[in-house]
Amino acid sequence: MTTSGTIRVGIGGWTFEAWRDHFYPGTLKQKDELNYASRQLKVIEVNGTYYGSQKPETFAKWAADVPEGFVFSLKASRYSTNRKILAEAGESIERFLGQGIVELGPHLGPILWQFAPTKKFEPDDFEGFLKLLPDKQDGLPLKHVVEVRHDSFKVPEFISLLEKYGVAPVLAEHFDYPMIADVTADFVYARLQKGSDEIRTCYPEADLAAWARRLQSWAAGEVPDDLPLVDKDHKPKQQPRDVFAFMIHEGKVNAPFGAIALQQAVDR
Fold it and tell me: Which tens digit of pLDDT belongs to each residue from 248-261?
């Protein structure tokens, strides 16, 4: 019987000038960077899909370039989330999901729907948006995660809505945005954004150890006892959960090394 979910730690994107001759070997060709990164890490969050659509052939090429077990998290189109009335995003959501992401097949991880820091929680409208998120696209199962960045979302009603639709909140460790550590789906998605370019592993050793314990706790179906919860009375179902964690934004220069170190810590 499986007693723990799969923990995947990764980074945002794979094309970054500062990683060349640093994370990437100096002799590596740019066209081979995804191939290399996907063999050092278990997941990459793709930011480019937020700004523009891709061709089916592009997704197919990505899938062919990575090993078994590796997944991509895709940031959904900004046109779906940067709008006054979210419940009217149906056409934009369909366009994003229909652009060819199914070509990723088993390499497709969670889809991240990111909202502007100015977007406030309006329960009816937000539920209208959640209703638009399908469980499958052309037969391929989908996992959805939302990143909300306004304090108005820190209410039990928001947590209840996410659980109702099986959607996860981004757990953001960020200097400005709220942290929401409540578990509402069969997976957990964390974005660790307080790293430093001055630290080889992006985060200090003690912080990496603390995050390793939290990721392992979620994977085992538990809830870490040292993170703030919006709804302290909410008790998620105790079951193994897949966990996705990203070293991203701050400390980007050394993010790959931090992700590798954290992955090694949870795999011990």
Answer: 989 999 999 999 99
Question: Could you give phi then psi for residue 46, rounded to 5 degrees?
Answer: -95, 120
Largest CA-CA distance found in the chain, in angstroms, rounded: 54
From residue 88, alpha-carbon distances to 13, 92, 145, 152, 255 in Å are 29, 9, 19, 21, 37
Q: Looking up tokens 């959960």, which residue turns up?
A: 241
Domain that holds residue 92: 7-267
Would residue 1 count as lying in a domain? no
Task: Enumerate residues 6+ apart whose C-beta is below 8 A from 127.
Answer: 161, 165
How many folded domains does the chain comprise?
A: 1
**Residue 87, phi then psi, degrees to nearest 5:** -65, -10
Q: How far apart, in whole angstroms, are the C-alpha atoms of residue 146 and residue 170?
A: 6
Where residue 183 sits, what CATH number does that domain have? 3.20.20.410
pLDDT digits (tens, 9 = 90+) for 220-246: 999 999 999 999 999 999 999 999 999
Q: What is the DSSP letter of 24?
A: B
SS3 158: helix
